[in-house]
Amino acid sequence: MYADIIVDITHEKLDKVFQYVIPPELEGTLRVGTEVIVPFGRGNKEIHGYVTGFSEKPGYDPEKMKPILGVAKDSVAIEAKLVALAAWMKEHYGGTMIQALKTVIPIKKQEKAKEKKRVCLLLGEEEGKRQLDRFLHKNQKARARLLAALLDQPEQDYDFLTKKLNVTRTVVRALEEQGMIALKSEKVFRNPIRQKEKARQLWEFTAQQQHAIHVFREDYSRGLRKTYLIYGITGSGKTEVYMEMIAEVLESGGQAIVLIPEIALTYQTVMRFYGRFGGRVSILNSRMSPGERYDQMERVKSGEVDVMIGPRSALFTPFSRLRLIVIDEEHESAYKSEQTPRYHARETAIERAKREGASVVLGSATPSLEAFYACECGRFQLLKLNTRAGEGELPEVYVEDMRKELKEGNRSIISDRLEKLIEHRLAGGEQIMLFLNRRGYAGFVSCRSCGYVVKCPHCDVSLSAHKGGRMVCHYCGHEEPQVTVCPSCGSQYMGGFRAGTQQIEELVKQKFPGARVLRMDMDTTRTKDGHEKILEAFASEEADILIGTQMIVKGHDFPNVTLVGILAADMSLYSNDYRAAERTFQLLTQAAGRAGRGKGRGEVVIQTYSPEHYSIEMAAAQDYEGFYAAEMEYRGLMGYPPVEQLLAVLMTGPDEKMLETAAKYLKEFAVRVDKKGVLQKIGPASPYVAKVSDMYRRALYLKGSDGRLLIEVKNRMEQYIEMNKGFQEMRIQFDFNPMNVF
Ligand code: ADP
Ligand code: ZN
Ligand code: ZN
Known about the structure:
binds zinc ion; binds adenosine-5'-diphosphate; seven-stranded parallel β-sheet; GIY-YIG endonuclease; 21 helices; globular; 5 domains; 742 residues; alpha/beta
């Protein structure tokens, strides 16, 4: 027998399968996905690799074939099904097989499970006392201390005992060797969920919830596995519906994965699942240590866990009876990986589900155009929930034109209406959220006299003014003191244009001195659980006003919030990006959805400089379908996804000239491959941000309605790049239907 091995070197040149001989001692121990050690290259360097297949016939002279040296120590085998999924990802998203394999291995290195050791006395009381006398007589004090303690209580915790008595491992071992004591150990896997009992709420499902659950049940029991999109406004009870579906799947012996964007993965959300399914639920998140993550995988493998909740990477949980994948907030851009392979969790989930016989349930109040379009085309089934389930009506929304505000003499960041409403809420003891579509003092520093913008010397992006008079580059971290005189025209009108969360906090404290204010942004959530702590403090009404960026839009329910102010609603409209309108609509709708989730009716104030833009109009009207129609028209006109497919070829390198030439060659190559000339080829252009950390960037875009052809072009390009030395000095990555333009 021979094994096909993918070696662990990320290099396009080696992205192929190598055949090795399976030595007799390894026969029967290898499986697809096993991590092995093999001799490689002329020097027979020992490197790691993964088994991807077996064959009985050698691909070339077996005399020259090398044997596998062994199974890697502390390795974590990849499930065979996930190896196949990795191959699919490599084909669809580009990159090497080893990069794809590493994406589907949930935990890279095996970590020791925390062991709980106990020390037990094996001697009877009489014999024990005799030995104690002997130790004392020989002046072996440590041994005597240990034995005396065990005579008091014959079984004790190892860590506790050794620490308390101050005895070393050698002492314990000595007694163990003399047969006086024994060590017992049990593996304990850390359970990340702090347990708390919670009574189940008893209410009736709404007719729409019942319908969604019914459709799923009928299909599921008949063995039909489909992709569903639950298009349900915030608070319509989607989560409750997911839980019913999961219960159905668990009852039939199946397992489920629930993907939730990291920032929405709050204690509150997790507890809802835990309250329903108890210890069968586990979570993964990026704040967990490798050890904690490893433990969760062990719990999965030992069959303790049937429901895994986590962000994008939880999709690769090695369940063997996977029957359902839920993707909450499926429109979130976090579901697209930014590392090669740049896979989308939605598409990859659908592929995994197809291979393993599982259903996929997507949910969102503002579905991605991709998902809604797929429903129109009949590929997904649409399930609508358009009424709020519990208490709370949809909020009243006001759009404030900030240009008019300025003309009328209000130079503040807060409109008159918002100010009055804040006063009103503070007086009534209700809570307020102020949402800013930006991070920190993201505002660039520019000259109001000549328009000069201060840029990073390494990155070609504007520097941001931070507190303390510094200007910082958000791409590479470059810092310099804020300039007060314009380097271009010498005027003194230099300043940060737009407000950040810190500035808003200062202003709010000034205007409403009695108000208790919390701020949530990158700066205040840097510590572990920082994010959670702020949300919890606000939920328990320790503050009146919560000011924050995107982070405050997700997750927690705040029943006492009756006013949401959206400051600079259109900032996200001006990014150089074909999804800008979609992102703006989503953000505004989600932010507005935070108001009035409790008893009182909520109000929302959207402040903008472009009130006539359809993404803002439709968000104010809370009209998703209206937005969808308008945006699809634009995407169709421009040939953007989901109407057509877009392949981005991203190139980075230290030499701008060389990069330019390479980009030109790649484009010419694409023209040759696309014989019929059906693809549109854009660029190579220097992207919006042309240089990062002294590396130049170029992007080439290929558009067309034939997805297979784009994959074909990508495969041919990968070969072309591999064969030509000219590309060696640069990094070339592929991105299918990118979330934003490079
Ligand atoms: P979504 O996930 O769509 O935002 P949730 O499932 O979180 O909605 O539901 C919002 C709130 O309404 C939750 O507190 C939930 O317990 C409650 N809820 C859900 N369904 C019902 C129902 N049929 N009747 C009453 N309350 C409900
Ligand atoms: Zn100037
Ligand atoms: Zn920089």
